[in-house]
Design brief:
alpha/beta; 8-stranded mixed β-sheet; 18 helices; globular; disordered N terminus
Length: 563
């Protein structure tokens, strides 16, 4: 079995024997370190690409054997071009069968797993509606929950089951408590006809009424098809266990209507919705992990503060390459700023990690208080904003704004990704969503510019002009309409006319350095008030915490529409 995977920028994904590593951006091949037949270990360099004046290393993230290499040094690759093929060691598709014996498949057991031990109280009788509801505590926070019953008509929902979810969701709003849903359902009950459709509609309306009022977390532990796919999609966070499926129509209907042949996993499995559609915010390795992740996100969105915390001793600046034109993974930088966990639990929870990975979104804590993090990731597409990442970011900003979660924005962005496909995919329309989300936000939001912020992407990444509470920059950071080299190619095109090769490169470098000196660097930006202060990377956490303390902050109360 061969899987085509979008450029991993530091690894590859998919528990399958053979994986195609493909480019996700137009680039030039600088070096090729992988050789056919060679064994690579996690972290080993496969090759280096260059795009938009940024060097992008491609590394393995697990042990594998290189099957073949499709490119050579100097080649130009386009989005989708195959770079190399790997065979993973000890890969097994059986590992993705899903399910976990530690979480029983009965709705009562699944509800109990969501709550603190001994805190659950069932709210209804097992009457054939196919839905059970309960109340309990999640890390001491009172919450309500519902679960579909796979043993009753495959979890199909009729009027009674839908109304049970509707009443519980309305109750959660009236009592101001989070509501969690466990989904394992084939959709509407066909035998009930339009009655079940009306029930579905009323359930959708209640979920929408609760949007932005109380956290709604969906946990998918089996199939969620038809109307049971749209219920979770309307909630704030969707957590899927491996083996779970979400789709509107199954493979049989797809084949009969379109002639396309596809299996259930490819059509609506966890990896599909984490990496391609963006429907899944989090994927748990099994049922127990999915439930644990749902509990953690519920606590964070509820705003519960921890009385004790541990800070990282890592200087986030030490995690950036010495050369400004070398890409890096922003995840360790985020971890170095946020609180650490004393136990083995993740310090922060990334949302939609595989979809539009050039922007990172996640929930963590600063001095015990929940905080949302939005960060450009230079290791993926150079950190450019594009149509999908702008949409992903705007949804996350609105999520945090809905529940009063302050935002930390880490910026290292060369601009918007150019291309015909970007224009056709609605980068203007979808990019405007991010401008709207930040401009409308009322929560405290602090921006830290790590290396650069160019053009319209500077504005979109929570600039002062959109209402940022504070904007800091690390030493050497650049803010400009475009990079110095790109600028001199326009401003000094007559001086560059007729030059080529090394002579052209040397002249561009000379003019770019002069342009930086003449423009005054970051000092005029500070004088104008567009950046509040230059801070040392090691002082980032303290500066951000202090800025949050003094910032105006209140919960917006907007609906969290699934953008």
């Amino acid at each position: 079995m061969t899987v085509s995977e979008t450029l991993p920028m530091g690894g590859y994904a998919g528990d399958v024997p053979t994986v195609e590593i493909t480019a996700e951006i137009a680039a030039t091949v600088c070096t090729v370190d992988a050789a056919p037949g060679s064994r690579v270990l996690p972290g080993d360099l496969l090759m280096v690409l260059e795009s938009m004046k940024m060097q992008i290393p491609i590394r393995a993230d697990r042990a594998a054997t290189v099957v073949d290499v499709a490119i050579e040094v100097g080649d130009t690759v386009r989005n989708g071009d195959v770079l190399c093929r790997l065979t993973a060691e000890n890969a097994s598709l059986a590992d993705d069968a899903g399910g976990d014996a530690s979480v029983s498949s009965t709705p009562e057991a699944r509800l109990a797993a969501l709550f603190d031990p001994g805190s659950m109280r069932l709210l209804d009788a097992d009457d054939g509606s196919g839905v059970r509801t309960a109340e309990g505590a999640v890390e001491g926070i009172r919450a309500l929950a519902y679960a579909s019953d796979r043993a009753v008509q495959g979890g199909a929902l009729g009027m009674d089951g839908c109304m049970r979810i509707t009443r519980l969701t309305d109750r959660a709003v009236s009592e101001n408590v989070p509501v969690l849903g466990v989904w394992h359902s084939g959709g509407a009950r066909l035998a009930e006809g339009v009655s079940s459709l009306d029930g579905m509609g009323q359930m959708f309306a209640s979920i929408t009424r609760a949007s932005g009022r109380v956290p709604q977390i969906s946990v998918i532990l089996g199939p969620a098809a038809g109307g049971a796919a749209y219920g979770p999609a309307l909630t704030d966070v969707v957590v899927m266990a491996r083996g779970a499926k979400i789709f509107v129509t199954g493979p049989g209907v797809v084949a009969s209507v379109t002639g396309e042949s596809v299996d259930m996993e490819t059509l609506g499995g966890a990896d599909t919705h984490l990496n391609r559609s963006g429907v899944a915010h989090i994927v748990g390795e099994d049922d127990a992990d999915a439930v644990a992740r749902a509990r953690a996100v519920t606590v964070l969105l509820s705003g519960q503060r921890r009385s004790s915390w541990t800070r990282s001793v890592m200087d986030p600046g030490s995690l950036l390459p010495d050369q400004a034109d070398v890409a890096y993974d922003v995840h360790p930088v985020v971890s170095a700023i946020l609180d650490e966990n004393a136990d083995d639990a993740p310090a922060w929870h990334e949302l939609q990690a595989g979809w539009a990975p050039n922007i990172v979104t996640g929930l963590g804590r600063l001095e015990g208080r929940p905080v949302g993090v939005l960060a450009n990731n230079p290791i993926r597409r150079g950190g450019c904003l594009d149509s999908e990442s702008a949409e992903k970011a705007s949804r996350f900003v609105r999520l945090c704004d809905s529940f009063g979660i302050p935002l930390l924005v880490l910026v290292d962005v060369p601009g918007y990704l150019p291309g015909v496909d970007q224009e056709w995919n609605g980068v203007v329309r979808r990019g405007a969503k991010l401008l709207h989300a930040f401009s409308d936000a009322s929560v405290a939001r602090i921006t830290v510019i790590l290396r650069k912020a160019y053009g319209g992407a500077y504005i979109a990444m929570n600039s002062h002009s959109l209402g940022a509470s504070a904007v800091f920059a690390w030493p050497g950071a650049e803010i400009a309409v475009m990079g110095a080299t790109a600028a001199v190619r326009i401003l000094k095109r007559r001086d560059l006319a007729g030059l080529a090769g090394d002579e052209l490169a040397a002249k561009e470098t000379e003019l770019a350095e002069a342009h930086l000196r003449e423009s005054g660097g970051i000092d005029p930006v500070i004088e104008a008030g567009w950046v509040d202060a230059i801070i040392e990377p090691a002082a980032t956490r303290d500066a951000v915490v202090e800025a949050f303390r003094g910032a105006s902050h209140h919960r917006n109360g907007i609906r969290n529409i699934p953008l």
